[in-house]
Design brief:
six-stranded mixed β-sheet, alpha+beta, 21 helices, 7% strand, 10 strands
Amino acid sequence: MKKKFLEQSSKYMPYVLLAGLALLFVITRFWRITTLPSGVHIDEAGMAYDAWCLSQYGVDRYFKSYPLLLTNFGGGGQSALCIYTTALLFRLFGFHSFLFRVTNIFYSLLTVVFGMLILRKLYPDRPYLAIAGGYLMTILPFFILSARLGMDCHPILGTSTVFIYCFLCALQSEKYRYYVLAGITGGIVLYTYSLSYLILPSFLVLSFFYSLVVKKFSFKKWTVMGIPMGLLASPLIAIQLINLWDLPEMQLGPFTLTKLPGYRVGELGSFQFSNLKSAIATLFTSDIWAYNSIPKFSNLYWISMPLVIIGFFHCIYLLVVSVRKREMDLKLFLLLWALSILYVMSHIYTCLTQLNVSFFVMVVFIVDAVSLIFPLPKKWLDFAGKGALLLVYTVFFLCFSNYYYMGRYTQETYPIRLFFNLQTEAIAFIDEHPEYGEKGVQTAIPSVVYALSCLKSPYELGITLDNTFIENGYIHCSYLGPIEDGYYYIVDDTFPDYITELREKGFTEIAYGHYYLFYKEQ
């Protein structure tokens, strides 16, 4: 009876662990999602307002019909996939601030699910390593923080993980359908972040040479992969040519091939070892943005650093062995992905936003190091060692969760730079009582945050690239100037001196959470 019970427990244990992992994912991603981090990032607001405009009017905030590369502030560009995913949610469910953060939770889920499938493929005889990898992708700080913001570039991590899975399936099975899927998913990656224009080709070049060396290259099958990838890439290639050669903006059916006023190709420079060093340091530690990382915990918890290094150099060793023996090792394509990223990052000064595509590979290196250090899953010493490692990660996660979710993070970082409060309630009051502000509205938020707060038509607001607009004769100023009667003032609680001056001058105030509305009654 006892033996039968143990067999049944062993049979169902993976499903129990996966169910627990799913619950943990839901908690870490959804708990306090609308208030943590507090406010809305300016790029998040731009993404969300463009998504709302596209869902309602078929244009972005600058009246461009279904642009395949969004303009954003100053014309620097914003990737399309996150915005169109959010636009679909708005179309289906209406606007809610919850929805523009749900978008990247979905792409975070893709990272965990397809990341586990990749690990299952890399370690077929050790299924619990895939579950361990899923646990890491659920609890590591960067994976949590990046999933809780509606930033346009964050889907690159999830979509690239799906692409790598399809690519590995194609190489392993040699079936044409997987090459087609790899081509489609690789093409989709290009719509997540402009850096993918460099990372994906670099990876394909390295994979091409490696496949040649190990005699696994098939021209016909790679062509099958290249056709859908090339078709999806062609509009983006056209956009680059339009901007490089100063050609006029063009239409592809309903879609706009955008000409950007502030084309950012100049950010790419020559190879700099200092950039490479900075990128590696940032991967392990943090960057300057409080919403990207929490320095005291690092991006992967400090215990991960030696494991990543061990896994990386073990893969380098396996690459040498694979080339000598002319035998393909699927794990090495993850190494080639990492090398492609590092090569591209060595040409720019990076932050975690640009490095977010790297983090699944970091988990692969951690898991590989664990498989190397504890190679015998049925030995009690290995079991005890992995149990101790799991316990350490869990303790780090509990400390991180206590700090992040229970209030200390908000207390120490509020206000986070580039974050602003939506002012929906105040704007609703102004619309109902225009008589108190015949001169207009002054508020220290960018116009796109104001636009997201009121959700008025882009044709009505007429936002320009310099972030100003006039609505129905009212001047909306994205700054707080000298105080005078006839204006509405919307002021965050981060301006205590300005609030005090308004009170002293006899303005009526209404408090809305972290901001106030002031006006003079006639």
